[in-house]
Amino acid sequence: xxxxxxxxxxxxxxxxxxxxxxxxxxxxxxxxxxxxxxxxxxxxxxxxxxxxxxxxxxxxxxxxxxxxxxxxxxxxx
Length: 77
Prior knowledge:
By secondary structure, this protein is mostly helical. The protein has 3 helices and 2 strands; from the N terminus they run E-E-H-H-H.
């Protein structure tokens, strides 16, 4: 639930449905989930602040352990 001023907005979204759409879209368009998320976040910022002239940058965390073939690291708890 999100509260905007005195208005309450309730949004119920089935997460599995969104995940299916997201995965399908990525596969059909040859996009990685990280790239798509960056594009969607950037577009959202431009919609919220269309007069913004600054560059919108998005950072995506990447875990390279799988690519490097390393399963353990000093950050494992």
